[in-house]
């Protein structure tokens, strides 16, 4: 068993979601020989390659596709790179995390290789036997992959947390190989062009990896009131999330949406303020360890999944919490 | 330009689904079925492009059992000009086969744009658009929240909802676009349009006629209910909540 990881990097580091994919590859097999595929340009991809080479003891090889036009991940080029690397390496598995990066690239690469990909795997029982949620997580589907190699999948990163001993990994760093991408002609690269990314820089932890997540629903009533949540988040060292209703109303940007079609989170502590608990929202947070719900409506469905509920006005609860919660060190 | 839109018939988004006792799947008999919400958004976008004068015709296509004709009838009532139903009978059509069927339809119809929902709310796969784009070697703009066409230069500028915010890319046409939630607000079919749709044509073909083999690469072993969360407690005050989080759950 050998696995190719379609890796994502940022600021010279392999992203935590990709480390989860590597952890999932270890679940596929303890003897898995893992190759990590990175693409990018400049010193940042080289630094990320160094990180990839020492991030996990099972990583035996790091493959780097480096070119100016690969600075931003475009599915058209990536799919062809994955195909070329697979034809050389004959991996039994190809895996990526279910991020917008992985979801965009992996299915295209699978089609180009003429295999059926499996989306959003949450459990690996055998090398070809997986569990994935369907119907917004209201059912779990166990599937057996019976197609040809490679078996391709995206994994839900909240389900595979890598506990890696960094010393064991660093003792034996993987080889880093530049791959020849001269086959990437204008016909592939020229079809699509990256223009820009608008994001709101935040000091707070990333929604997908935060230990504490606090979310607000439509009941927050305004973008201004979301600032209250942010204050509390700061105090708790938490990330802020939102429901679809709050995003649609324009209170917060789209990348804060938690749910079936937004981000999937599974923090230690999830606090929902003014969230009714639509099934589409629950799909994104039901695996949280401890769920707290604050809502004026005692019949809100969110209380059915909450460990602790407060039937109260969030505009009274938040200031009180701000005052009484111990400062995060 | 012609626009092709793929639509899927799924269990209505408001239905609380039930897992079958024999674990073979989810109960779909006597359950309200509707057009996948993301497909409605895809169709709405195609209709708006046509209404703005940038496209001449919108063709809705669907792959699945006989009842998919109902979903296509809804698409026609919303405003699609005509429809193609790829009748697969009772067979399960995996996403890769759907993508191959769509490729065959695209090759026959030659649209300038293929628009799909980013995912279906039943299997939550989020694959088909990317796969058909790969098979056709077309550019792809997935998770679109805004689409602007430049007919003269044959390009589409697409804003995409990605994990880090909004990404803007520019695609050569023909292209595949998959829709996210905030691209538009789909219209309702009006009664006169529902009546008019009855006389519109739904062409029927089979996967065999399109030379697509349905290859079951993924076998469903079982479908189960997710573990239930234990019922929690309703607390009476913020002080009590802080105490519980500190001393019982130990997360503060």
Automatic annotation (TrEMBL), chain B:
Keyword set, alphabetical order: Electron transport, Mitochondrion, Transport
Q: Name one GO biological process term.
A: amino acid catabolic process
Q: Which Gene3D superfamilies match?
A: HUPs
Question: In the record, what terms sit under GO molecular function?
Answer: electron transfer activity
Q: Does the keyword GTP-binding apply?
A: no
InterPro entries linked: ET-Flavoprotein_bsu_CS, ETF_a/b_N, ETF_b, ETF_beta_N, Rossmann-like_a/b/a_fold
Q: What GO cellular-component annotations does this UniProt entry give?
A: mitochondrial matrix
Q: Which family does it belong to?
A: Belongs to the ETF beta-subunit/FixA family.
Q: What does this protein do?
A: The electron transfer flavoprotein serves as a specific electron acceptor for several dehydrogenases, including five acyl-CoA dehydrogenases, glutaryl-CoA and sarcosine dehydrogenase. It transfers the electrons to the main mitochondrial respiratory chain via ETF-ubiquinone oxidoreductase (ETF dehydrogenase).
**Subunit structure of this entry?**
Heterodimer of an alpha and a beta subunit.
* Stated name of the protein: Electron transfer flavoprotein subunit beta
């Amino acid at each position: 068993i050998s696995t190719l990881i379609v890796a994502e990097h940022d600021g010279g580091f392999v992203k935590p979601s990709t480390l989860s994919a590597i952890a999932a590859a270890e679940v596929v097999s303890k003897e898995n020989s893992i190759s990590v595929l990175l693409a990018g340009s400049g010193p940042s991809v080289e630094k990320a390659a160094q990180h990839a080479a020492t991030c996990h003891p099972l990583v035996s090889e790091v493959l780097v596709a480096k070119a100016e036009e690969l600075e931003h991940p475009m599915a058209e080029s990536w799919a062809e790179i994955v195909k070329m690397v697979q034809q050389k390496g004959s991996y039994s598995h190809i895996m990526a995390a279910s991020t917008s990066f992985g979801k965009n690239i992996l299915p295209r690469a699978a089609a180009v290789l003429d295999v059926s990909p499996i989306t959003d795997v949450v459990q690996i029982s055998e090398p070809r036997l997986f569990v994935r949620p369907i119907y917004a997580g209201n059912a779990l589907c166990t599937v057996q992959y019976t197609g040809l190699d490679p078996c391709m999948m995206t994994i839900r990163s909240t389900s595979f947390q890598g506990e890696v001993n960094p010393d064991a990994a660093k003792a034996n760093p993987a080889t880093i190989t530049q791959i020849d991408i001269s086959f990437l002609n204008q016909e592939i690269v020229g079809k699509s062009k990256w223009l820009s990314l608008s994001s709101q820089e935040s000091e707070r932890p990333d929604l997908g990896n935060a230990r504490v997540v606090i979310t607000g629903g439509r009941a927050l009533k305004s973008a201004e009131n979301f600032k209250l949540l942010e204050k509390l988040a700061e105090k708790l060292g938490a990330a802020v999330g939102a429901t679809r209703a709050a995003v649609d109303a324009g209170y917060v940007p789209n990348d804060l949406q938690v749910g079936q079609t937004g981000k999937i989170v599974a923090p230690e502590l999830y606090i929902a303020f003014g969230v009714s608990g639509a099934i589409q929202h629950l799909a994104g947070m039901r695996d949280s360890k401890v769920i707290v719900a604050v809502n004026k409506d005692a019949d809100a469905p969110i209380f059915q999944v909450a460990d602790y509920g407060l039937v109260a006005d969030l505009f009274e609860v938040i200031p009180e919490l701000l005052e009484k919660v111990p400062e995060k060190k | 330009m012609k626009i092709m839109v793929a639509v899927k018939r799924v269990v209505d988004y408001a239905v609380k689904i039930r897992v079958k006792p024999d674990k073979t799947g989810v109960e779909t008999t006597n359950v309200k079925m509707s057009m996948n919400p993301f497909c409605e958004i895809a169709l709405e976008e195609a209709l708006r492009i046509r209404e703005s004068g940038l496209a001449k015709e919108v063709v809705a296509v669907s792959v699945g059992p006989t009842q998919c004709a109902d979903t296509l009838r809804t698409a026609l009532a919303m405003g699609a000009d005509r429809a193609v139903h790829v009748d697969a009978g009772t067979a399960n059509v995996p996403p890769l086969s759907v993508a191959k069927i769509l490729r065959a339809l695209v090759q026959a119809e030659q649209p300038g744009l293929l628009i799909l929902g980013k995912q279906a709310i039943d299997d939550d796969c989020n694959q088909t658009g990317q796969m058909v784009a790969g098979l056709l070697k077309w550019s792809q703009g997935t998770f679109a929240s805004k689409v602007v066409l430049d007919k003269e230069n044959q390009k589409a500028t697409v804003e995409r909802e990605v994990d880090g915010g909004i990404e803007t890319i520019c695609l050569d046409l023909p292209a595949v676009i998959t829709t996210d939630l905030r691209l538009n607000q789909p219209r309702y079919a009006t009664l006169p349009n529902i009546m008019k749709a009855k006389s519109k044509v739904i062409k029927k073909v089979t996967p065999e006629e399109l030379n697509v083999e349905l290859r079951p690469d993924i076998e469903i072993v079982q479908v189960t209910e997710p573990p239930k969360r234990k019922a929690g407690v309703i607390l009476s005050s913020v002080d009590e909540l802080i105490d519980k989080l500190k001393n019982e759950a130990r997360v503060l």
